[in-house]
Amino acid sequence: MNLVSQAAAVTVPFSSLASENIVEGRLGVVDIGSNTVRLVIYDIPKRLPFPMYNEKVKCRLASGMLETGRLNPEGVEKAMSALSRFKKLGVAMGVENFELLATSAVRDASDGSLFVDQILQSFGFTVKVLSGAEESKLSAVGVLNGLPEADGLLGDLGGGSLDLISLNNGKFGKHATFPFGHIRLFEASGQDIEKARVLITKEFSKTPLIETLKGRTLYAVGGSWRKIAEIIFNATEYPLNVIDGFTMTAETIMPHVRRIAGLEGNWRALDHFGGSRADTLPIAAIVMERLLQVGAPKNIAFSRFGMRDGQMVKSLPDEMRRQDPFIMGCIAMTERNTRFSIGGKELVAWMSPLFEGETTDDFRLRLATCILSDIGWDQHPDYRREYVFNIILRLPFAGLTHEDRAFMALTLFVRCGGELKDPMVVPIRKLLRLEDLKKVQMIGLALRLAHTISGSAPSIIELTELKKKDGKLVLKFPESDDNFISEAVNRRLKRLARVLDLKPAVV
């Protein structure tokens, strides 16, 4: 097995979900939720699909259901209008397959089936109305796509329900669906936080599932909980405003959650984002507060991936579903923006003598960085390092921690000639340990040296050899061939050797 295959091999726990085998093309997933109707269009190439378009319309289908038992008429009208637009957009964008999923509002409304029939008659779309178990499993698939060994409890809070599912080292466990989301609970409690708290606690007491969360991780999914993460970014001046992979201890996050719930202080002064969730956000926060209090997790990890992404994964052919989405995403990214660039496999093998004894996770991160090491080639040299740094920090791939993002972004910043003392990157440095920062320099400077030797062309760097020997960093060239050697090569070899506390030597 070669290096790329070794890093890409991953066992994905999706055997319980049948693949629909969409090999290539564009897939439109429409999520008809209790609060919003959203379209996400995925481009499905030979490798990892990319979300190429994302639009939502606030319909509030669940509004008023507590009193009437029926879908909100205004929401139905908005949803039909949104679906008409989504169909036209999808056709114009070349979408070959549409998947429409409906959740708790349509599932529980007395006129939900009429709404589904209306969609079929108007647009020719069949809507799959998900059970609570199906909804939670699809959310889990979306999260597990990037975190195949996730362990804890996944909570997906929508407008109409809260779905929980146990994740046991990447395998599905028990699930529970609670008949409250931020809209329904907002109405059921009459906007009274204490009343909402009592209702939640009563429902949680009916299942032992929440007790399995103790000391583990709560994976938080859903727009309202993502909004909470954004507010925490502001409150803590956190250096990276990326939701996915944002992790805090439950102890650290609890005061912020209580403040947003209105139990302590006023959260609105921290909300620089605005948006349409402000009225029900305290309700979303009190649901999280109850989960933290009753379940006692150690950490909370926020995810931007969920049910829609789970449906996308379900639609992939089996071979693609078995690939490491992170590594395949990096390869796909370079394939879409490439020149005659040196390959990641060549680079990772060439510098491997510098990284003896590294863990599998460290190797995977180094491989990904090598694959992406030339993505800024078409940018102006004066702005290339800034461009690459910002692109890597916000990679649209699942399964990256914030530390991973910081590591890769800083490494490629160095590869493009940047210095870690640059004021632009100093805040991000705080996410890493000192030993990680040394490794950043080692990989970044090794990449800079390799691209200088080869001119970024393939099949050249493998003619050379880099190794540590007798207190020296030895760069070996083919016998009787000095065409590889230049002033820039010598300068960059010296800089890399200095970081390694070695003396440079050219053979």
Which terms summarize this structure?
21 helices; Nucleotidyltransferase, domain 5; 6-stranded mixed sheet; disordered N terminus; elongated; alpha/beta; 5-stranded mixed sheet; 507 residues; Hypothetical protein af1432
Structure description:
With 507 residues, the protein is of the alpha/beta class. It folds into three domains: 21-129, 2-Layer Sandwich (Nucleotidyltransferase, domain 5), CATH 3.30.420; 133-307, Nucleotidyltransferase, domain 5 (2-Layer Sandwich); 325-506, Hypothetical protein af1432. It is built from 21 helices and 14 strands. Strands 8-7-6-9-11-10 form a six-stranded mixed beta sheet. The chain has a five-stranded mixed beta sheet with strand order 3-2-1-4-5, with helices on both faces. Strands 12-13-14 form a three-stranded mixed beta sheet, covered by helices on one side. Helix 20 runs antiparallel to helix 21 (487-499). It is elongated, with a radius of gyration of 25 Å. The two termini are 31 Å apart. The relative contact order is 0.10.
What does the secondary structure layout of this molecule look like, with pairings?
Elements: H1 3-8, E1 25-32, E2 36-44, E3 50-58, H2 65-68, H3 73-92, E4 97-102, H4 104-108, H5 112-123, E5 127-129, H6 132-144, E6 152-157, E7 162-168, E8 171-178, H7 182-188, H8 193-204, E9 217-221, H9 223-236, E10 247-249, H10 250-260, H11 281-295, E11 299-302, H12 307-314, H13 318-321, H14 325-336, H15 344-350, H16 360-371, H17 384-393, H18 402-415, H19 426-429, H20 434-454, E12 465-469, E13 472-476, H21 487-499, E14 503-506
Parallel strand pairs: 1-4, 4-5, 6-9, 9-11, 13-14
Antiparallel strand pairs: 1-2, 2-3, 6-7, 7-8, 10-11, 12-13
